[in-house]
Specification:
FAD, 8-stranded antiparallel sheet, 26 strands, alpha+beta, single chain, Cholesterol Oxidase, domain 2, flavoprotein
């Protein structure tokens, strides 16, 4: 029997469930399980409460994504497919996780994505199975009917920015002969339009605000520990019995009577498993870690959407940027936001976009666009004077597969992240097609009229030029998944369809890392769905 619970750390508390990571999945599962007063839940996160104006003001996302405020701000290993460049991977830190720093776009993905999961042997994960959990989570102010929910904890609304560029975008879509789409989460989502966002009354509605903040101090059975970095899952034999974590200078243990629920995200869930002795035994041994359970799929199967950004300078007053002329507008926006919770500070920047096919013979869209109300270069880390706009294009179902590995046995050291972008030739060629499709939109009269200067693509003409610029500038659009793959009879599978870790007891993974394949869209709403479904499955087993 292996017992890795022998070393330091005082036992501070015991709960029925210990949830590690308060991101979209962790908040949802903790919030739902703690609805039963007889079930105690402890929720741990390495960051803070994330309940201040920087998080709640949508426009303040620029302060977080490009830096280290509420953000792990990870880097990748050098990417062979991107000319050896090191990529950037912002990940939310604190209650709400990445839902506290993201662009708030409410997208579920295509029904075919979930039906594909089920076809791989993941019973209970077809679209018809997961739709009720999307609806249960949702409080949609604009849409209802078969595909939408009212009264759930997650507020979903139309933008309140009032930006007239939205109508310019729709006009450009018509000029380019693209379909206009009002609702991207209904029967079909092909087309361009204005995104719904996870906001309420013009404020960000993170997963923490939906599922955790309202109950802190009110539910005696919900214990929330912030600034608590999980360092190890504790095992007795093959059973998870608790978590070791560092809070300040103290090393503490928290015990789980029923289960440990790991929800630290696509990078840190596999990292914590490996630090705890779960993973490829030979690789762990090389890091000086004793093997609790050999599970070679942990950290494998990393998938992410490769993304290219068109950027333009523009003197249109409705775009954001850095300029003296823009200061009066910013001051007016601050006053308007304080008064009405409307205007530019409610913008998620990626206000418009949609899903397109690069070839008419495709069954479903293969690219997604995010049209931004500012000119973005290197995730906002490279600043340019003046105002402008951007248009992202990402490949929805890339064939490239990457990995997450330990850099060392030190829990405070970031993992080695390798998305392996554009390693498959098919991904590069699909991105070339995506580039051309997006350029067609950018060259419509309505959008051409806004462009003063093409920042990145003025000299791109041939297919080889496109391939070169893609390798020079592609990076993530912030949707990493897959590193604790759900599956049965698959050598790389880490969890079963109940999200239980294969070969271990009382341990589940409840975040985007369980996705066997990347869904075609933004990953926040699907990860909340995973938390909702996990809570329902657990409650069913407790009855």
């Amino acid at each position: 029997m292996t017992d890795n619970n022998k070393e330091g750390g005082s036992v501070t508390h015991t709960s029925d469930f210990v949830v590690v990571g308060a991101g979209s999945g962790g908040c949802a599962v903790a919030g739902r399980l703690s609805e039963d007063a007889a079930t105690s839940v402890a929720l741990l996160d390495a960051g803070g409460r994330n309940d201040n104006w920087v998080v709640t003001t949508p426009g303040a996302l620029v302060l977080m994504v490009a830096g280290t405020i509420n953000n792990w701000a990870f880097n990748t290993v050098p990417q062979k497919g991107l000319n050896g460049r090191v990529g950037y991977q912002p990940r939310g830190k604190g209650l709400g996780g990445s839902s506290a720093i993201n662009a708030m776009v409410y997208i579920r993905g295509h029904r075919a994505d979930y039906d594909h999961w089920a076809s791989l042997g993941n019973t209970g994960w077809a679209y018809a199975d997961v739709l009720p959990y999307f609806k249960r989570s949702e409080d949609n102010a604009d849409f209802d009917g078969e595909y939408h929910g009212k009264g759930g904890p997650l507020a979903v609304n139309k933008l309140r920015s009032g930006n007239p560029i939205q109508q310019t975008f729709l006009q450009a879509a018509q000029e380019g002969q693209f379909r206009i789409r009002d609702d991207f989460n209904g029967e079909d989502h092909e087309g361009l339009g204005i995104y719904q966002v996870t906001q309420k009354n013009g404020e960000r509605w993170s997963a923490a605000r939906a599922y955790v903040h309202p109950h802190m101090g009110k539910r005696a059975n919900l214990r929330v520990e912030t600034n608590a970095l999980a360092t190890r899952i504790l095992f007795e034999g093959k059973r998870a019995v608790g978590v070791e974590y560092r809070q300040g200078k103290e090393l503490k243990h928290i015990r789980a009577r029923r289960e440990v629920l790991l929800a630290a995200g696509a990078f840190q869930s596999p990292q914590l498993l490996m630090l705890s002795g779960v993973g490829d035994a030979d690789t762990l041994g090389k890091r000086g870690l004793a093997s609790v359970h050999h599970l070679p799929g942990i950290g494998q199967n990393l998938q992410d959407h490769p993304d290219f950004i068109f950027g333009y300078m523009s003197d249109n007053p409705n775009f954001a940027g850095i300029s003296l002329k823009g200061m009066p507008r910013l001051l007016r926006a601050i006053l308007q936001y304080r008064r009405e919770r409307r205007g530019p500070l409610t913008s998620n920047f990626a206000e418009c976009g949609g899903f397109l096919k690069t070839r008419p013979d495709l069954d479903i869209p293969d690219i997604q666009l995010h049209f931004g109300m500012a000119m973005v270069d290197d995730h906002g880390r490279k600043r340019h004077g003046g105002t402008g706009f951007s248009c992202h294009v990402c490949l929805l179902r890339p064939k490239s597969r990457g990995s997450v590995a330990l850099a060392s046995a030190d829990p405070e050291q970031a993992p080695l992240i390798d998305p392996n972008f554009l390693s498959e030739e098919a991904d590069l060629e699909a991105m070339v097609a995506g580039y051309k499709t997006t350029r067609r939109l950018m060259e419509t009269p309505s959008l051409r009229a806004l462009q003063q200067k093409d920042m990145f693509t003025a000299d791109v003409h041939t297919d080889d030029d496109i391939r070169n610029i893609l390798r020079e500038r592609v990076d993530t659009v912030y949707h990493p998944v897959g590193t604790c793959k759900m599956g049965t009879g698959d050598p790389l599978a880490v969890v079963d369809p109940k999200l239980r870790v294969h070969g271990l007891e009382a341990l589940r993974v409840v975040d985007a890392s369980i996705m066997p394949t990347l869904i075609g869209g933004n990953t926040n709403a699907p990860t909340i769905m995973i938390g909702e479904k996990a809570a329902d499955m657990i409650k069913g087993e407790m009855r």
